């Protein structure tokens, strides 16, 4: 286990200690203030010198938020990255309780601050870092604070993201990925298909290392992101859009749009929306489509084409004719840019080929669970530009 924190200090902008919590009794506030004074005396600001410092046998780690510094100090060999993350989590918790973290809000809430520091760290080891969990036994209002004490969790078994005692009549897991409605304190084991191993160069390196064994975790309650990955291979647009703009006279223009699905026939895109720009002086639209419906939106100078169901390997057309109120030359551009925005969803389809082989739920009460797995590909930020 990494070394423990000796003390946690909150300092003002000049390095004077506002609040301190002594966990192990081997570093004093005077030592921390002396170290910080040395930093302030050096050229440049404090941040430019890095978030980790060493002085007279003590390692200091600190971050700044507004007009205060949050600092830990230790005489042991600590995991610096872990403690810096803890300080950022501490900022999030203070902001949750006080709306904003600054010197004034700390001075107004000394009692609450000490209660939070006692619950978030036990004998120098980080414990609870989620505000939602802390509010279950530290409750505050504008005038007073009520505290319900509970025994601290064992340092090696702390799970800050899930409360004990959760109960559901029906225990369900939805892999979207992922939503859980499970009672108690379950352990989940997730296995993915072996194909991912063959495509591992396209995902983050840590994912490649984990795929030789199931992913084991205790889930938070409700919705959360279990994992992310990235493909390095080029992926062609699943719905390709191209357009042809023709001016028939100085006062009339026609736009022909072709949309083509570039995935296999067994899949179908749903709720497809294609938004394309039209001239700002366009009026009297005459719109025809081979599938779906299209609407002219004059407030945004756009045409919105909606297709409820778009099977794979299909092609649909839209033609729109507009009158132009302005008298312009034939060479004048019809729009400043032709930028198509495309939205869609494709159920039961994954670009990467990742699939769930199994999901095991282990909970001491032995209840039965209902796992639901859904694959869906969404467009995200998807734009096509016509050159």
Descriptive account of the structure:
- It is a single chain.
- The protein is α+β, with helices and mostly antiparallel strands and 387 residues long.
- The protein has 3 domains: 7-157, Beta-Lactamase, CATH 3.30.450; 172-232 and 351-378, Mu homology domain, subdomain B (Immunoglobulin-like); 239-349, Mu homology domain, subdomain B (Immunoglobulin-like, Sandwich).
- It is built from 7 helices and 26 strands.
- The strands form 7 sheets. Strands 17, 19, 20, 22, 25 and 26 form a 6-stranded antiparallel sheet that branches.
- Residues 144-385 form the MHD domain.
- This is MHD domain-containing protein.
- It is found in: Cytoplasmic vesicle, Clathrin-coated vesicle membrane.
- InterPro entries: Adaptor_comp_med_subunit, AP2_Mu_C_sf, AP_mu_sigma_su, Clathrin_mu, Clathrin_mu_CS, Longin-like_dom_sf, MHD.
- Its main location: membrane.
